[in-house]
From TrEMBL:
Keyword Transmembrane helix: no
Gene Ontology, cellular component aspect: cytosol
Highest taxon in the source lineage: Bacteria
Bilayer-crossing regions: none
Pathway(s) annotated for this protein in UniProt: Purine metabolism; GMP biosynthesis; GMP from XMP (L-Gln route): step 1/1
PANTHER family on file: GMP SYNTHASE [GLUTAMINE-HYDROLYZING] (PTHR11922:SF2), GMP SYNTHASE-RELATED (PTHR11922)
Protein name: GMP synthase (glutamine-hydrolyzing)
Taxonomic path: Bacteria, Bacillati, Bacillota, Clostridia, Eubacteriales
Alphabetically ordered keywords of this record: ATP-binding, Glutamine amidotransferase, GMP biosynthesis, Ligase, Nucleotide-binding, Purine biosynthesis
InterPro entries documented for this protein: Class_I_gatase-like (IPR029062), GATASE (IPR017926), GMP_synth_C (IPR001674), GMPS_ATP_PPase_dom (IPR025777), NAD/GMP_synthase (IPR022310), Rossmann-like_a/b/a_fold (IPR014729)
Length: 432
């Protein structure tokens, strides 16, 4: 393989992602795995030069203090314990940031003798080799939403296995305005991908009718996605793998053995137990900014690489509570206005993510001198590097006024516009 690796084992720390990014910033690749990794699993990981045991406040599980198994201590690899019980893991190890970095650097380079060979070219080369080894001469089905993650996966898999890849784009009725048409144009017409377009709008919305709980909505959407793919696979020959644009924040927020879930993601917690595909997830250890860097290295256009992130459940988690077609359309139309006005104001590409949310409650308003009882639209605009934390964009008030005027005039059933000022934490980026 092209890259050395430092393996981080999760013993209850809330700082795993921070530590991983710190080591990657030094030029050395890292992966985070459960504390109870087996000898077989450890031996299957390529290029491991050393292991960090990263403990913290969640080290006690079901009344028992967890520890790495014999496979780690008998591996012959250098081990660094960052596991002060009852304290804050990495932060408690060294309160001085410069000292902390120096300790990590000494372990990585002087003790483990790892090389600075973590870059996107080497990552891509490694993933191409791993995908070819996993897939062989068999065929892969890719869930292609047209978003950044699935687009980068598509480009990487085309390099790795070419025409063994079939892309399936499902229009579940929860996409942004004009998005299904754009996906078909870009991938089928411009990139010459094997693309199957599936119109499943009624199917998904019927399944979601009356479902208000966001976790249940995610699971329904995830399970129905898999069913659609299974049906498409049965029409093809030799499909044994399902590729997904899973990235590391998806896995973190869906929970680990020691950290409670923030929320399940449709491609992690929402997968059905009777899944009939083996998964191919070449981006699952990358943070969002690294996914974009990977897309650039693969030669994808900036318009695709730097487009806004879009949740797997789509507008389904922005139409809060039980989804109705009328509110869903209000989300879609207001989102289109927001994106159009941000682009006209020069904010496209400068703000990481911006979108609208329509809740299930209404409020009194006035239109044409008559009383209205309609929905509010909530605007959200945030900036982040890795999607783990986020700050709120300081949008000019005049622009907010213009967007408000357009939405209340052009979107049916809406009489108020609100702006969400909450960073992550305490809020999450999405509302559900």
């Amino acid at each position: 393989m092209k890259q050395d690796m430092i393996l981080i084992l999760d013993l209850g720390s809330e700082e795993n992602a921070r530590l991983a990014r710190e080591i990657r910033a030094m030029g050395v690749y890292t992966e985070i795995h459960p504390h109870d990794i087996t000898a077989v699993e450890l031996a299957a990981l390529p290029g491991v030069k050393g292991i960090v045991l990263n403990g913290g406040p969640n080290r006690v599980v079901d009344g028992v203090s967890i520890d790495a198994g014999a496979a780690v201590y008998e591996s012959g690899l250098p081990v660094l314990a960052v596991n002060h019980p009852g304290h804050g893991g990495l932060a408690a190890w060294s309160e001085n940031a410069a000292e902390r970095e120096a300790q990590i650097r000494e372990f990585v380079f002087d003790t483990c003798h790892a090389e600075k060979n973590w870059n996107m070219e080497n990552f891509i080369a490694d993933q191409i080799e791993l995908v070819r080894r996993q897939v062989g001469d068999r065929k892969v089905l890719l869930a292609l939403s047209g978003g950044v993650d699935s687009s980068v996966v598509a480009a990487l898999l085309i390099k790795a296995i070419g025409k063994q890849l079939t892309c399936v784009h499902v229009n579940h009725g929860l996409l942004r305005k004009g998005e299904p048409e754009q996906v078909v144009q870009v991938f089928r017409d411009e990139m010459d991908a094997n693309l199957i377009y599936v119109d499943a709008v009624d199917r998904f919305l019927d399944k979601l009718a009356g479902v208000a709980d966001p976790e249940q909505k995610r699971k329904i959407i995830g399970a129905e996605f898999i069913r659609v793919f299974e049906e498409q696979a049965r029409k093809l020959e030799g499909i044994e793998f399902l590729a997904q644009g899973t990235i590391y924040p998806d896995i973190i927020e869906s929970g680990t053995k020691t950290v409670k879930a923030v929320k399940s993601h449709h491609n992690v917690g929402g997968l059905p137990e009777d899944l009939n595909f083996e998964l191919v997830e070449p981006l699952k250890m990358l943070f969002k900014d690294e996914v974009r860097a990977c897309g650039v290295a693969l030669g994808l256009p900036d318009s695709m690489v730097y487009r806004q992130p879009f949740p797997g459940p789509g507008l389904g988690v922005r139409c809060l509570g039980a989804i109705t077609r009328e509110r869903l359309e209000a989300v879609r139309e207001s989102d289109a206005i927001l994106r159009e006005e941000f682009a006209a104001a020069g904010l496209e590409g400068k703000v990481w993510q911006y979108f609208t949310v329509v809740p299930y409650f209404k409020s009194v308003g006035v239109h044409d001198n008559a009383r209205t009882f309609d929905w509010p639209v909530i605007l959200r605009a945030v900036n982040t590097v890795d999607a783990m934390t986020a700050t709120v964009e300081d949008v000019p008030f005049a622009l907010l006024q213009k967007i408000t005027a357009r939405i209340t005039a052009e979107v049916k059933g809406v009489n108020r516009v609100l702006y969400d000022l909450t960073p992550k934490p305490t809020g999450t980026i999405e509302w559900e």
